[in-house]
Write a structure and sequence with these properties.
heterodimer; A: alpha/beta; 5-stranded mixed beta sheet; 4-stranded mixed beta sheet; 10 helices; 21% strand; globular; B: alpha/beta; 9-stranded mixed beta sheet; elongated
Chain lengths: 298, 801
Amino acid sequence: MSAGMAGAVASVVVVTHNEGAMLKATVDSFLQDTGEPLDLVVVDDASTDGSTAFLNDADYSAIRLCRLEESVGISAARNTGGRMAATDHVVFSDAHVRVHPGWLEPILESLADPAVGEVGPCVGSLGGNAVPGYGFTWKEPSLKMAWLPNPEGTADVPFLCGCFVAMRKAVFDETGGFDEGMYRWGFEDSEISLRLWLRGYRVQVAPHARIDHRFRPHFPYQVDWSGVIYNGLRLGVVHLHPQGLEVLIRHYADRPAFSRAWARLIDSDTFDRRASETGHRREGAESFLDRMGIDALR
Amino acid sequence: MPSGEPPVDGVVVVGMHRSGTSVATRLINLLGLHLCPGDDLVPLSAANPTGHWESQTLVDLNDRLLASIGRSWWCPPRSDQPAADGDPDHARALFARAHAERPWVWKDPRLAATLPFWTATLQQRVVAVVPLRHPLDVARSLYERNAFPVALGVALWERYMRLALRSLRGMAVHVDHYDALVDDPVAWLARVGAFLQAHGIVSAPDAGVEFVQPALRHHRSVTELEGTFPATAAVYRAVVSLTGVHDPFEPPPLPPESPWVEAEITAYASTRTAPLPRPLEPQVSVVADPGWAQPLPPFCQRVDRDRMGEASGATLVFARPRTRIPGEWWAAMRGALAGGFDAVGPGVRLAGGAAGYGLVWRDHWLNQTWLPRPPGAGPQAALFLPEACFAVTRRAFDAVGGFDPGLGAGGTDVTELCLRLWRAGYRCAVTPDVVVDDDGPRELPADDDGWAAYLEAVLRMASIHLDVDDLSCVVEGVRRRPPVPGAAVRLLQGDVAERRRRYLSEEWAPTAAVLERFGVSIDPMREERRLLAGGGEPRMVFVGGPHFSGADIVARLLASDPLASGFSHSAAMYNEGQHLQDVYPPANRFGGPGRFALDPGAHLTETSELVSAEAARRLFGQWSSRWDLSRPVLIEQSPPNIVRTRFLQAMFAGASFVMVKRHPLATALETTTDPDAVLTALDNWFAAWRTFEADRGALARCLVVVVEDVDAAPERVVEGLQEFTGLRHLEASGVADPARPARTLARWDEWCGATPASYLDHLVRRFGAETAAHGYDLLRPADGPVQPAASMARVAVPAMS
């Protein structure tokens, strides 16, 4: 096996944290099932399970490994890899996916449209029998993801699953990538899709690009639910209209972890980010949600 | 004067009226020190034919300073009253006009009371000359000039001298007797000249001393005082002994002032009808609602609340519509402000109730409670001032930015202002000697909108000022109130975060430090939280017991404590943690309910190959999203924990275990009614408990709870759990199920009726003795333990340390 930057048309950033054997399987899948040469970057978010040791083998010498001494969370780790990307296209992938042959071309085709800011594939279930999803929407005030059916062709979707998304490097640089102010996990994928939409980009699914993702019943790392709620509130404060934010808060205020999430929110840079993002906005969230037929926040 | 120090800027002549201060001032003037401009000198009078040599402007101002505390030159303040106070900028400006040239000499007997204000205001290097005169000479002079009774004159002398001695503390002072001055003015002048030269003023007499006329010594008495005014005589003796130079001056010890002094002074003052001098500009602006009407002292400016920008006083007073401010508060308030406080309020007597003296937060809803009268007299530091009426210096008010316009409901604007003052280093006080009546009801919200506004105000205050822990606590208290989401949105879209950050960047004191000073704790469980979280790591409590023993009931009870967190609303059956992880095999791998303990493989200990730090991190991670990790005690329950105690202890050092026991046959019958399966379930029950008992010696902390006790004596169970876990706020209501024994009995009756007696005998022969060892009777499943042998009370309970 070999991989390298020479002639690569896309950079793939794989973020890993204690993924065990799944990481190697994911890397191997990219190497074996991609017809084009890739610029492959593995960002190790302070794993302690030795799962990146295989990258020392000669077969993987072309893969760049960025090892973070302290865990920075999914958004910052992805952005670290994104900044290392050496091509015009950057794909962010979880470390527990399998790509299907031919996955790259439909994505690059979609990204060729300068109006498109983010593209995702059809996401199937690795080791499971869940129906594949084609982007997702919100159907509940919890902002829980609700997968969308096959649109049969490249189509606009509200949000893409963060397990596998692609952007032009220029869009990544312009927008700053994922929101690093978010806690370790939760809503970071909804946020970047929403941000791109509100900035005037389109977000699309390329259904002919297929990957399988392992949907785990358990987190392999510690997740503080107040952090997850904080992420949701942060998304709401930065992007949502007052009514939508109120519905979101009404939902989460019922959870005990809301109290600490609120305290974290007040103590955070969320409000600076809101001010900054307002300056880039081409459309309001209310209009966007109406346009997408999303009434979860009414 | 130590060499190298610059000369002093001026000399104050301090003493009682009619003590020779005027002639002393003129003599010092003749040494070359400057008086005020001639057109500002108090005109000559018959009582002082050689001149007063004092500035009319500064006399007026000193009169106003005395008036600010309700006093006057003929009614000087008590020594325990707060010092007179005024607008320093205004005073400096007037003084600069009166004494533009240095070195200056300034005389005014009122300085005995007002000198501390001037010392602080002028910030100049000043020395003092004190002419001393016999009290009876002074009194008789006052009698002649002002028709004052002699006793009043003596009282005034004593009051003035006590004030002067206190005011002169720390200064360079020359004390000389008036008699010595008139007897030999040249010698007096030489002594004073030497004193001034020692402080850098080179004297240059340019005129004679002929104007000093012995005839002006109206009276000279020596012995009369002792018999009539012995206390004043003692003061006089002490003052006479001070003759000479003192640098720095230290007041001599004096006997306490006799009550007759104040009585004499106030009795005379009550007969005076002369108005207090009207200030040149308002010193106090009273800000109140338009309907507020109350006579105000002449130094006050009345401003409607909606036109606050017009308030120009150096002190702002805010009053609620129905608050009546008594006259004495003005003096007390001004005194407190002059005494080092920046905001002050009176005691408040609510309609029909006792008086309160300042307020503090009493709980995490930020409700306030009145404080009792503090010990002692004079102003006392207070965290929050009453909205009914309080005063604040313009300087402090402006420095912290005034009221937060986003507040107001329920007096929250006053509370928040006080908190901001404290954080910024200003000080608030109550003056307990004055109590105002607040005959209006406290303005609690009257309707839903009012409550919504109040909740929003609470959330706003907390979000701006409290640290993350205290803020979480406040939010926890209000988060489920219907108005909160709407209020939260308004706050998030406003300036809350900006204010919070600004106050942090001002490097003000943390709110926690301010609250600690007043012993206020927002989080009622802060100390318990601190103790429980002592190690930094959460405390894990694992609950287990054979299926249907009631482990889930006990786990819910533990998780009801605000300092604990358990699983809820998970997809797992009974929220059992075994189904929310993939680190160790759940019970169903070993046959599930009624069977798992019979499989030796289900028994996990510290020797299991599954034990590792990585596995522990992974297991905790998988459970972590189900807990509120801000709580120090984390609860997990799964039936097979009873055979995994040592394993879990190896994974999570310091873990505690609560095993739940229920009658074996009642448990078995919840599992199955098939006779063979019942027998297996009983086998499983005993195997599980035998395994636990065998492992128990290796456990650091464990407790056995009998579920029948939960129904029969829930308070005892709660007490035991509280003692074991340190969780003091278990919500016991609803945990007992009085109908449970009857249901168990019905199931038992039904099953017994359908089961051959021989089979029952077989069960008794097989399990009866072991059942009894657990304190149960196998054939009496619904009654619970036949003796308290199995109950928690006799189980050793090592407390969580």
